[in-house]
């Protein structure tokens, strides 16, 4: 790296050595960020944002041909592609799987009716759904950083620790946020109800004598592959938003069990394909806590939606995931004690604003 | 089993099987002229964290709005990043020249069948071809003891078989890897754009071109530029080259198929290897026009950015 001191601007006073800003940022990153945050015009980050200001996300869905659902999300200089692809898991391939018949599932529903509170009932139902998904392993998210998205993540070798951590965090959030409904992922032994009146091949099947009992024959397994095109901080938020939009965009072909061939067949008619139900739309917002060493009093700033430069300087991070009605879905915090209970309240509020912003962006794309 | 990734259910899963096979509409075939290549979208600077980057996409065929999920034809989509030149690790031996390493990786959703994360032989093969195409254009002596990484990610690949064969699953033994040849041609162009974006000195910009001898049923063989494999019933031979126009040099050739003794029906010209190369060169020259435009645009955007954003106030220490 060649460092060329810029010529002093004023010749009157002996000017100390000066560097252009980007050189300074490389030589003394901490001082650089500290000076910005302590500026006379109020705290401002090197990117020009205020500490709580986030980068506006953009999204684009359905651009991949071979995926059942896909999304490209860009937040500043971080860009992610997510593709969702459904594959079929036969019920006989699940060890110790006790097939539930339609009656049994309906019975369960009746049992549920006993709960007076509808909201509680709904929650219980969703939770059971997620538990079954986790038990069967129907959601398979994998995050890939080794695409040359940044100089620190080059391909060759196994996935980095960061990539593994992020994949696991996404898997956990998929399960704990009760995002999807099990009913969308079951494949029954009968022809799907919704598509019973279309296509010539349908009659052929309905002419067969009615199956004695309706049972779950197979499941859809969703392979959720997340590829980073470009990485400049805050990979988790961008990856999750891409997953969320790709799942919303996913249309699984209608599928049924063919008794003669003893296999699951799918219809290739696009309008029979079923959209996934996505509940709650939980949206995360990550923060970093920057502490300056110089002041012993321990002045600290909480920076929302960090970029790559800031990420290198913040040890403590907080991720708040907010769902419907500003309910906190998940809080992850690590690396320090800078943010207390009171501060978290403010962060939750910011995450709520982020969610509103995202719903607007993603709604615009969908319409 | 890879324990460092999230694996699917231990029982294994199967890709969906569609019914009814063979219901798809007849392939419309090629709608372009034989000397016309598909429109190329090329843009540099998509990955600001890398030294250089580029994105390439080929024109999407209009058939995607048809009434079957199987009829959708993909459009080639590639991203490329370049990292370097940067110092080699201390442990590596002295090199007087810039060391080039190339990688090509397919995304799991790049093909009709889901692809794994472990590199396979096809990817390594493409990377080796790409390396030969690029090695010759770098002025490597300017960076001793350094290395540069060129990484291409295939977001969406090209298919190998005719459209109706895809729908029935009956590939007629046609697994020839013709799609791989189109992908290589795209890889060469996109990597050249990313290398230029990274500011690495090259003797010229290299572009990929592909030509093929194809035959529709009950028609004589024909020479076409930039073949889209699903459009053609039979591909007899194909050839990809990496071509430097201003020096009239070829850095890479990959030809495949039965090239000998074919006439175009009139019985006058033979479609030999030389003719095939000449046509591939033509395709590369057409791609070069797009590349030059993209590089101009990219450079203009860079200049505008640096003017709009003065590099901050200088801070004294």
Automatic annotation (TrEMBL), chain A:
Region of interest (Disordered), ranges: 36-64
UniProt-listed InterPro entries: ExoRNase_PH_dom1, ExoRNase_PH_dom2_sf, Exosome_comp_Rrp42_subfam, PNPase/RNase_PH_dom_sf, Ribosomal_Su5_D2-typ_SF
Main subcellular location of this protein, as a coarse class: cytoplasm
Taxonomy of the source species: Eukaryota, Fungi, Dikarya, Ascomycota, Pezizomycotina
Name of this protein: Ribosomal RNA-processing protein 43
Bias-annotated ranges (Polar residues): 49-64
Family of this protein: Belongs to the RNase PH family.
Presence of keyword Transmembrane helix: no
Domain Exoribonuclease phosphorolytic residue range list: 54-253
Organism, as annotated: Stereocaulon virgatum
From TrEMBL, chain B:
Source species, domain of life: Eukaryota
Subcellular location: Cytoplasm; Nucleus
Keyword Ligase: no
Domain Exoribonuclease phosphorolytic per the UniProt entry, residue ranges: 36-200
InterPro entries to which the protein is assigned, alphabetical: ExoRNase_PH_dom1 (IPR001247), PNPase/RNase_PH_dom_sf (IPR027408), Ribosomal_Su5_D2-typ_SF (IPR020568), RNase_PH (IPR050080)
Principal cellular location given in the protein's record: cytoplasm
Entry keyword set: Cytoplasm, Exosome, Nucleus, RNA-binding, rRNA processing
Disordered: region residues: 1-33
Pfam families: RNase_PH (PF01138)
Keyword tRNA-binding (UniProt): no
Protein family per UniProt: Belongs to the RNase PH family.
Protein name: Exoribonuclease phosphorolytic domain-containing protein
């Amino acid at each position: 790296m060649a460092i060329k001191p810029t010529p002093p601007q004023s010749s009157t006073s002996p000017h100390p050595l000066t560097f252009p800003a980007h050189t300074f940022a490389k030589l003394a990153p901490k001082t650089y960020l500290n000076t910005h945050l302590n500026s006379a015009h109020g705290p401002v980050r090197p990117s020009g944002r205020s500490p709580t200001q986030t980068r506006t996300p953009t999204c684009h869905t359905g651009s991949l041909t071979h995926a059942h659902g896909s999304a490209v999300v860009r937040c500043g200089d971080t860009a992610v592609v997510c593709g969702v692809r459904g594959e079929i898991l036969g019920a006989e391939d699940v060890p110790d799987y006790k097939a539930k018949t339609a009656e049994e599932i309906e019975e369960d529903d009746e049992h549920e009716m006993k709960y007076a509170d509808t909201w509680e009932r709904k929650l219980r139902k969703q939770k059971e759904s997620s538990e079954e998904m986790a038990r069967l392993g129907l959601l398979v998210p994998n995050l890939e950083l080794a695409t040359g998205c940044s100089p620190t993540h080059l391909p060759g070798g196994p996935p980095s620790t960061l990539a593994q951590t992020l994949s696991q965090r996404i898997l956990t959030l998929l399960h704990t946020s009760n995002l999807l409904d099990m009913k969308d992922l079951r494949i029954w032994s009968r022809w799907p109800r919704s598509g019973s009146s279309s296509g010539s091949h349908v009659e052929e099947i309905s002419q067969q004598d009615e199956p004695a009992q309706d049972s779950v024959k197979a499941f859809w397994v969703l392979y959720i592959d997340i590829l980073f095109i470009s990485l400049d901080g805050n990979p988790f938020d961008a990856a999750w938003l891409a997953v969320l939009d790709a799942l919303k965009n996913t249309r699984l072909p209608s599928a049924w069990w063919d008794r003669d061939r003893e296999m699951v067949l799918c219809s290739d008619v696009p309008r029979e394909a079923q959209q996934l139900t996505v509940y709650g739309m939980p949206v995360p917002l990550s923060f970093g806590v920057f502490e300056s060493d110089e002041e012993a009093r321990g002045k600290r700033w909480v920076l929302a939606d960090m970029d790559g430069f800031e990420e290198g300087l913040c040890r403590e991070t907080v991720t708040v995931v907010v769902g419907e009605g500003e309910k906190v879905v998940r809080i992850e915090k690590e690396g320090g004690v800078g943010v207390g209970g009171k501060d978290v309240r403010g962060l939750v509020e910011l995450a709520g604003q982020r969610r509103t912003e995202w719903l607007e962006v993603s709604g615009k794309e969908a319409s | 089993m890879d324990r460092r990734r999230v694996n699917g259910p231990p029982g294994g899963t199967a890709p969906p099987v569609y019914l009814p096979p063979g219901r798809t509409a007849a392939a419309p075939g090629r709608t372009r002229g034989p000397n016309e290549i598909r429109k190329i979208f090329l843009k540099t600077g998509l990955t600001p964290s890398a030294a250089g980057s580029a994105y390439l996409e080929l024109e999407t065929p209009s058939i995607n709005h048809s009434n079957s999920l199987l009829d959708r034809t993909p459009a080639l989509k590639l991203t490329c990043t370049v990292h370097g030149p940067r110092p080699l690790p201390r442990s590596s031996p002295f090199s007087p020249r810039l060391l080039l390493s190339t990688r090509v990786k397919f995304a799991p959703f790049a093909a009709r069948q889901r692809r794994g994360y472990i590199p396979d032989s096809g990817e390594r093969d493409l990377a080796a071809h790409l390396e030969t195409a690029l090695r010759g254009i770098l002025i490597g002596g300017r960076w001793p003891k350094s290395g540069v990484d060129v990484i291409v990610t295939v977001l969406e690949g090209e298919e190998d078989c005719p459209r109706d064969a895809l729908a029935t699953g009956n590939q007629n033994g046609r697994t020839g890897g013709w799609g791989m040849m189109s992908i290589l041609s795209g890889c060469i162009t996109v990597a050249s754009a990313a290398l230029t974006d990274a500011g690495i000195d090259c003797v010229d910009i290299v572009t990929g071109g592909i030509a093929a001898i194809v035959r529709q049923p009950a028609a004589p063989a024909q020479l076409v530029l930039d073949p889209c494999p699903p459009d053609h019933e039979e591909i007899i031979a194909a050839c990809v080259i990496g071509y430097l126009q201003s020096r009239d040099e070829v850095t890479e050739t990959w030809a495949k198929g039965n090239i000998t003794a074919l006439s175009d029906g009139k019985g006058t010209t033979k479609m030999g290897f030389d003719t095939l190369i000449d046509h591939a060169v033509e395709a590369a020259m057409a791609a070069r026009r797009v590349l030059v435009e993209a590089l101009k645009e990219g450079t203009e955007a860079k200049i505008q950015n640096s003017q709009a954003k003065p590099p901050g106030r200088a801070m004294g220490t």
